[in-house]
Design a protein that fits this description.
By secondary structure, the chain is an alpha/beta fold. The chain has two domains: 202 residues, 3-Layer(aba) Sandwich (Rossmann fold), CATH 3.40.50; 212 residues, no CATH class. The chain contains 14 helices and ten strands.
Length: 507
């Protein structure tokens, strides 16, 4: 039986400062009902929005926020909620409208209020209204000093959460091949991805073709106008940094400050560059693990070259002789090279050196236990990133050649699974990529970019390109393994740097 999936994530205040990858889990929690204007199927191709696309936006009428469903706590009693109506298609500003769910937590010291701080937690697929709904949460919220100075504004992006979750049919004629082995498998991947995209258009309507970053950036400016604010400050995390860059291109004069935490590559990289950047970073993170292993007695491979051990594991996987370990020795289940790369990506992303080394030793000796991780395309990422980035690959021959070059660039890990899943998820997607919008006239404020040097989701190469995309920008890096640095519980230096930038910037 076919099943329907909504692109929707239940509110969870503990996620907003958590380590979120570009891919967040989708839940089956209820979304707002679709309006009648969105019920008809749309077309895959959407017109490029003109730079001056505008639509009249009435001032926001705030009211109480809805209660959360268990086990999630209710929002702060100080939070307020509303819906802002925006054009479904920004190239037709007077056409059908959709609702964007918005939340506000007002500055606690009005006399020292700086203005509005709008934020987005990335994903794509995360409900950004949580940033305001739980702004004063002692674990996941902002510091008291930040709460004093800003009205915190969060919103669920179009097609996500309480802003009408998109619906798709996830089981279109069977599972999509995770790693196509030949030309037939690659064409089946393309065909099934295309049918999935068409199902999103059929079940969601034209909104499915308008969930790209440029459309969301225009929604952000509509929220700004509805708030009655001349300018906003913006804090984006992960995919939220891409939205910040798009907003800066479209509305530079409407920004007071722009802080980008764990930055995506804004230059629309092709499939090979995107996969290479992520894989090279994974390779360097394995070397960091190997360096730890030479110094720490807790390493299960102490005294051995950990990268050489990993190379041997790949050689055995290529030869068909690598088996899953068991309590008494190797099992009969083979481990291929792709599965080994999947394991390394999942393990190194979480950065538990002792546990990862122990499992590599288990694979090496055949005795022990492994925590396997599963990947695969993410529906929210396909709906959004396949419009924002151009990952299209001509055919299986080009795909194989890309994989070979990436493996040479990252020889100890072969590939970054997270990046590869994103690339493969866009093959055959019938809603084509949109071009990068032109830079509008207007003066931008100095921009702050923050990134970990070993970020497997948003690699440092993309953070450097993000920094270079602005005339005045600085890059703050931390030599750690991690993603989403603005959070309590992580090294809080990045949080202090961002808070200082947001509160002290003049203008």
């Amino acid at each position: 039986m076919n099943t329907s999936m909504r692109v929707n994530t239940a509110p969870n205040p503990n996620l907003r400062r958590g380590v979120l990858s570009i891919l967040l889990a989708l839940s089956a929690s209820a979304a707002l009902a679709a309006s009648a204007a969105l019920s008809a199927p749309g077309t895959a191709a959407a017109a490029q929005e003109p730079a001056d696309a505008t639509a009249p936006v009435p001032r926001i009428s705030w009211g109480p926020c809805p209660k959360s469903e268990p086990p999630y706590p209710d929002p702060s009693p100080k939070a307020q909620c509303a819906t802002v109506k925006v054009p479904l298609d920004w190239s037709k500003p007077t056409g059908p409208k959709i609702g964007i769910f918005v939340a506000r937590y007002r500055a606690t010291d009005p006399a020292r209020r700086i203005g509005v701080l709008m934020s987005n937690p990335g994903g794509p697929g995360a409900p950004g209204a949580d940033d305001a709904l739980y702004a004063d949460d002692p674990i996941g919220g902002y510091s008291p000093a930040m709460l004093q100075r800003f009205d915190m504004i969060g919103f669920d992006p179009r097609g996500i959460g309480r802003s009408q979750g998109a619906r798709c049919d996830e089981k279109v004629d069977g599972p999509v091949p995770a790693r196509p082995r030949d030309a037939a498998g690659f064409e089946r991947l393309r065909a099934l991805n295309g049918r999935l995209a068409d199902s999103c258009l059929k079940r969601t309507g034209p909104l499915a073709a308008h969930m790209d970053g440029e459309s969301v950036a225009r929604d952000m400016d509509a929220i700004r106008a509805a708030l009655g604010e001349r300018r906003i400050s913006f804090l984006g995390h992960s995919y939220g940094t891409f939205l910040g860059e798009r907003y800066a291109r479209l509305f530079p004069g409407n920004l007071r400050a722009l802080a980008l935490d764990s930055a995506m590559d804004p230059d629309r990289p092709d499939a090979e560059r995107y996969l290479t950047d992520g894989s090279v970073t994974l390779n360097s993170t394995l070397k960091k693990l190997a360096a730890w292993c030479t110094k720490d007695a807790a390493c299960a491979l102490k005294g051995q070259d950990l990268t050489a051990v990993t190379d041997q594991l790949f050689a055995r996987a290529d030869a068909g002789t690598l088996r899953e370990p068991g309590p008494e020795g190797p099992t009969r289940t083979k481990v291929d090279a792709d599965r080994l790369s999947d394991f390394l990506t999942g393990e190194l992303r979480g950065w538990n050196p002792e546990g990862t080394a122990r499992q590599l030793a288990a694979l090496h000796t055949g005795r022990g236990e492994i925590r396997w991780t599963s990947g695969g395309a993410d529906l929210a990422a396909q709906l959004v990133l396949c419009r924002d980035y151009d990952f299209r690959i001509r055919d299986h021959a080009q795909y194989r050649a890309i994989r070979e070059r990436v493996a040479k660039a990252a020889p100890h890990v072969r590939h970054n699974t997270q990046a590869l899943d994103l690339v493969l998820g866009c093959q055959g997607w019938t809603m084509p990529p949109k071009p990068r919008p032109a830079q509008a006239d207007g003066e931008l404020p100095p921009v702050l970019v923050v990134n970990a040097s070993h970020d497997l989701a948003t690699p440092p190469a993309g953070a450097h390109r993000m920094t270079n995309a602005f005339p005045k920008a600085s890059l703050f890096t931390m030599d750690i393994v991690g993603h989403w640095l603005y959070r309590r519980g992580a090294p809080e230096e990045a949080m202090r740097v961002i808070d200082t930038y947001l509160t002290s910037l003049k203008g």
